[in-house]
Structures are given as C-alpha cells and as structure tokens.
Predict the structure.
Amino acid sequence: MSTGWIVLGVIVVLALIAFSAYNRLVALSQRVGQAFADIDVQLKQRHDLIPNLVETVKGYASHERGTLDDVIKARNSAMSAQGPAQVSAAETQLSGALGRLIALSEAYPDLKANANFQQLASELSDLENKIAASRRFFNNAVQEYNTGIQQLPAALFAGMFGFTKKDFFDLGASRTEVETVPQVKF
C-alpha cells in the first residue's frame, strides 16, 4: 500500500513539474509574440512615412529615379514579408535603400534645408531608434524563450508540447551592407 502512495506521489510531482514547465514556456512564447508585434507596429509606421519622404525628395532630385524606385520596391517587399526571418531580411534591404535616399540630401542643399524633409527625416530617425530598441527587446525575449526550452525540466517536455526554437531578428550576413555609409556620386 505504501508503494502505491509513493508511486502516486511521484506521478503527482512529475505532473506538477510538467504543468509548471508548460505554463512558463507559454508565457515566454507569448512574450516573444508580443515583442514581434511591437516591432511590426513600428515598422508599419516607418512604411507609412516612406512615401511622404520619397515624394519630398522627388521634387528636388527627380533624376534620382533609380534610388527612389529602390526605396519603393524595398518598402513593398518589407510590407509583404511574414515572420521574423523574412521581415528581418526585407527590412535590411529597406534600411539600405533608405540610407541611400537620406544620403541624397547631402548632395542637394535645397532639399536638406526643406522643412518638410527635415521633419520627415527626424521622424524616420526617431522610428529607427524605436525599431532598434524593439529589436533588442525581441531578441532578448527570443533568447529567454530558447534558453527556457533547453533548460531542465522544461527540456524534457518542450518538444512534446510543441515548443521549438525561435529565430532572432538579426541583420545577418548583410550587416556590413547596412553599416556601410552610402556614397553619392554624380
């Protein structure tokens, strides 16, 4: 009879550990989802700002059609991207195109002095800072989640519950592209 109670006690303890691990992993997964949603909101704000910026630049640098078209194509690609990996890659392309667009202002003093352009560039800069902070928060949430599914006792149950590793929001191999200052030549 006492062996039965011991076995029942072990089963109850294992069930409590499994429930606890499951609930913790659900909370971590939700945090990752919420962090990605925060990035998505700010990226949408950036996407909405870009057409105004392009139109402002068009008035001063209409012969820079290739740069303007690149920005619009990159924006459209970024808007249709799904999931952290695709969004990250598309946003990297968009950041590079925006860098080239902003670099045009150096070549056009009238554009650089335009109040509308200054306001849009300032808003874009502010959004870029917010996006960078959100990316850091997202990557921290992913790191905690990935660590959580690999630590005991959750590692024993994570696969069974369907928890799999999540990808970081990273600039990846094109990091050097983004960090390189664009050069404008005429």
User: Anything to note?
Assistant: The radius of gyration is 24 Å. The first helix runs from residue 2 to 60.
